[in-house]
Amino acid sequence: MRSSKGKTFPEDTRSNDRWFQHIAIVVSDMDKAFERLRMSKVRYASTAPQTIPAWNKAAAGIRAFYFRDPDGHFLEIIYSPPGKGNSKWQGNDDKLFLGIDHTAIVVDDTEESLEFYRDELGMKVAGESLNYGTEQEHLNNVFGAVLRITSLKSPEGPGIEFLEYLAPGDGRPSPADEKANDIIHWQTTLETDDTTGLAESLRADGYSVVSTGAVEVPGGELGFKKGFLVRDPDGHVMQVIEK
Question: Which CATH class, in words, describes the domain spanning 187-242?
Answer without folding.
Answer: alpha beta
